[in-house]
Amino acid sequence: MPNQELTRVFRALSDPTRRAVLERLTRGPAAVKELARPFEMALPSFVQHLGMLEDCGLVRSTKAGRVRTYTLAPQPLEAAEHWLLAQRALWERRLDALDDFLNTLKEEKR
Amino acid sequence: MTATITHKPDPKLDLVLERVVNVPPHLVWAAWTTPEYIKKWFTPAPWQTVDCQIDLRPGGIFRTVMRSPEGQEFPNTGCYLEVIENEKLVWTAALKPGYRPQNAASALLFTAVILLEPQGAGTKYTAIAIHGDEETAKKHADMGFHDGWGKVLDQLVTLAKTM
């Protein structure tokens, strides 16, 4: 999986709403309305979350009439098991911490 | 002044991360080479780097001690391979100080290359993590040196597999 896609998977997984949706979908496909029910959120915002999950291939959707149903597509998750991904996550977070620290350092040296 | 990359990354084994920061190279260099600074950022929270020792010359020690959120400590002792001030830093976990080979089972064997280039008033830096083979690396990951992501992913993968 190219890095850009991995980054998208990570971004998609970084949000508790989206993770909750994935967890719900592990119990089987569900329509948008049902998926949205547990969240106190305007439907357009919720649909955006679903869009992010679909864009990175974590879920798939089909439309029958006016009802769009979502299904889990676990393939990216399996790819994400790869050890290298864990290493990348570590390095990304390490460099995030470095960037924060560098900004502090710059202020101090001013 | 351009530092040369003598390593060709293998996408299956290596990581290449590039960042641009609005901070001059000498400060980025200081962050990578000063023990007091390393302790402040090297290990993402909730892990901590509680000790760090640096002898900044080829063959010199680069030692960090990381502490898990549960309080368990993991010392890592490696050695520097290349030190070009404000430009290039290479160290490896595969060798102890003085270039003595490590016991391969004891650590994740990797080599890290840090390249710094001035970019405007700031710095473009590249971090390359070079890993030996997938098996040792995987073993290391299994040991639990995961950050929060590891846990999130594990949970999701487990859930996905129960489908």
Q: Care to count the β-strands of chain A?
A: 3
- What would you give as the CATH superfamily of chain A? Winged helix-like DNA-binding domain superfamily/Winged helix DNA-binding domain
Number of strands of chain B: 9
Shape of chain B: globular
Q: DSSP helix count of chain A? A: 6
> What multimeric state do the chains show?
heterodimer
Largest interface comes to: A-B, 36 and 41 residues
Structural Rg of chain A: 18 Å
| Strand content range of chain A | 5-15%
Low-confidence stretches of chain A: none
Walk me through the structure.
The complex is a heterodimer of chains A (110) and B (163). Helices cover 65% and strands 13% of the residues of chain A. Chain A has a 3-stranded antiparallel sheet. The N and C termini of chain A lie far apart (43 Å). Chain A has a single domain, classed as Arc Repressor Mutant, subunit A. The mean pLDDT of chain A is 83. With 110 residues, chain A is of the alpha+beta class. Chain A is built from 6 helices and 3 strands. Chain B has one domain: Alpha-D-Glucose-1,6-Bisphosphate, Chain A, domain 4, CATH 3.30.530.20. Helix content of chain B is 24%, strand content 38%. Chain B starts with 14 loop residues before the first strand and ends with a helix. In chain B, the strands form 2 sheets. A 7-stranded antiparallel sheet of chain B has the order 1-9-8-5-4-3-2. Chain B is of the alpha+beta class and 163 residues long. Chain B has helices spanning 25-33, 35-41, 134-142, 148-161, and strands spanning 15-21, 48-54, 61-67, 73-84, 88-92, 95-96, 100-101, 110-119, 122-131.
Can you summarize this structure?
The complex is a heterodimer of chains A (110) and B (163). By secondary structure, chain A is α+β, with helices and mostly antiparallel strands.
Give the SSE layout.
The complex is a heterodimer of chains A (110) and B (163).
Chain A: H1 3-13, H2 16-25, E1 30-31, H3 32-36, H4 43-55, E2 59-64, E3 67-72, H5 75-80, H6 83-109
Antiparallel strand pairs in A: 1-3, 2-3
Chain B: E1 15-21, H1 25-33, H2 35-41, E2 48-54, E3 61-67, E4 73-84, E5 88-92, E6 95-96, E7 100-101, E8 110-119, E9 122-131, H3 134-142, H4 148-161
Antiparallel strand pairs in B: 1-9, 2-3, 3-4, 4-5, 5-8, 6-7, 8-9
